[in-house]
């Protein structure tokens, strides 16, 4: 009976979509965006990534120095602009689309050459009773499920987003995806499947390799999928989420990158506390483990005044295995940790200024390492085992 009832509701959704041309509902198109630029400092920073011995796995680092300048990737948010639209089709059904492009505000260049809308590009249908189905380049379930449980909400400057999710397709978005979202009161369920994940939002190529996707006769190549369940109630929040990517270094030969995470938060008066854990594993096509780690984090947001928010975050990565190829010995990978602090002052609802500082041990800033292909560009200098970074910036939302 339940299955029959569900099929009937699904048929009603498709029927309503087919008759949408007969309706004359309201529609809207909105342009939006964020421009965020900080001036930042970092010490012990090398000009290029370390070279890694393919047999021993030993890193050879370049000399480090201090760097001072504008950070084009953004501070509190990545700079972006986008267009979103919705049309009311009647009967609780809506059509929607989102096109979103990321760019470096210091140069005006798009984040990914050849991709105008590298952050998101999708179209879908939303039903008040059946949820939302969407097709295109979209955020992964892991990324969206964890957003409310990160101290700095994935701030690009000093929150180690890539270390948390690096090696999982997209670290934020995947190509060729079908996604389902259902919100019921304080509970949200998300699930996605990508036929070919493509390049990540942050252009990170993981240790396991990356292929083109959607290869005829090799349906598993570069597929990705995941799901997440989130509860955000009055003061209490919790989430559980899983993500997997199957990158193909060569056609028909797939590696696996898996992540599972759990997080919780509690808000009272002017304070929000949060903590989480992420299990991670990357295996090559022969099933040999290249990366295995346990990532922990905790943080607090405190509204000191109506305009001033203070944030403190702590991140610790327990590395059990770290190799760039299976021939290397496991050795004894170091466990990096980082602490960061943010003071964010709102000048208005759309404009804020901020100051932030971070200190990391046993890696570059944002836990930059071979585990994520040194994707943050925070190359630790020769003979150094720590970095300090600081920045002040301004962000405007429109």
From TrEMBL:
Location of the Porin domain: 12-364
Subcellular compartments: Cell outer membrane
Keyword tags: Cell outer membrane, Ion transport, Membrane, Porin, Signal, Transmembrane, Transmembrane beta strand, Transport
Top-level taxon in the UniProt lineage: Bacteria
InterPro entries recorded: Gram-neg_bact_OMP, Gram_neg_porin_domain, Porin_dom_sf, Porin_Neis
Pfam (any one): Porin_4
GO biological process, one term: monoatomic ion transport
Topological type in the membrane: Multi-pass membrane protein
UniProt cross-references to CDD domains, sorted A to Z: gram_neg_porins
Leader sequence residues: 1-25
GO molecular function list: porin activity
SUPFAM superfamilies to which the protein is assigned, alphabetical: Porins
GO cellular component terms, semicolon-separated: cell outer membrane; pore complex
Oligomeric and partner information: Homotrimer.
Name recorded for this polypeptide: Outer membrane protein (Porin)
Organism in which the protein naturally occurs: Cupriavidus basilensis
Record lineage: Bacteria, Pseudomonadati, Pseudomonadota, Betaproteobacteria, Burkholderiales
């Amino acid at each position: 009976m339940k299955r029959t009832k569900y099929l009937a509701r699904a048929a009603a959704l498709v029927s309503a979509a087919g008759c949408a041309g007969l309706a004359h509902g309201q529609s809207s198109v909105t342009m939006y965006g964020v421009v965020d630029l900080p001036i930042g400092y970092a010490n012990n920073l090398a000009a290029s990534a370390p070279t890694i011995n393919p047999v021993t796995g030993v890193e050879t680092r370049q000399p480090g120095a201090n760097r001072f300048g504008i950070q084009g990737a953004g501070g509190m948010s990545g700079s972006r602009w986008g267009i979103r639209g919705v049309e009311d089709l009647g009967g609780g059904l809506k059509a929607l689309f989102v096109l979103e492009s990321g760019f470096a505000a210091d140069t005006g260049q798009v984040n990914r050459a050849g991709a105008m809308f590298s952050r998101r590009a999708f179209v879908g249908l939303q039903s008040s009773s059946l949820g939302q189905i969407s097709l295109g380049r979209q955020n992964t379930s892991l990324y969206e499920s964890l957003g409310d449980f990160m101290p700095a909400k994935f701030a690009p400057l000093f929150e180690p987003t890539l270390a948390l999710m690096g090696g999982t397709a997209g670290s934020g978005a995947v190509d060729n995806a079908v996604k389902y979202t259902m919100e019921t009161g304080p509970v949200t369920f998300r699930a996605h499947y990508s036929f070919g994940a493509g390049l990540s939002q942050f252009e990170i190529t993981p240790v396991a390799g990356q292929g083109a996707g959607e290869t005829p006769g090799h349906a598993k190549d570069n597929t990705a999928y995941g799901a997440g369940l989130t509860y955000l109630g009055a003061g209490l929040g919790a989430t559980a989420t899983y993500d997997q990517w199957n990158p193909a270094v060569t056609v028909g030969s797939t590696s696996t990158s898996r992540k599972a995470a759990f997080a919780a938060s509690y808000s009272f008066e002017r304070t929000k506390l949060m903590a989480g854990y992420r299990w991670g594993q990357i295996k090559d096509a022969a099933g040999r483990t290249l990366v295995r780690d346990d990532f922990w984090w905790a943080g607090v947001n405190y509204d000191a005044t109506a305009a001033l928010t203070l944030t403190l975050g702590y991140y610790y990565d327990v590395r059990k295995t770290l190799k760039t190829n299976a021939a290397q010995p496991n050795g004894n990978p170091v466990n990096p940790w980082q602490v960061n602090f943010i003071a964010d002052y709102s000048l208005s609802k759309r404009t804020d200024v901020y100051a932030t500082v971070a200190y990391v041990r046993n890696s570059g800033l944002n836990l930059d390492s071979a585990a994520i292909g040194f994707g943050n560009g925070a190359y630790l200098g020769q003979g150094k085992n720590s970095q300090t970074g600081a920045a002040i910036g301004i962000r405007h939302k429109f």
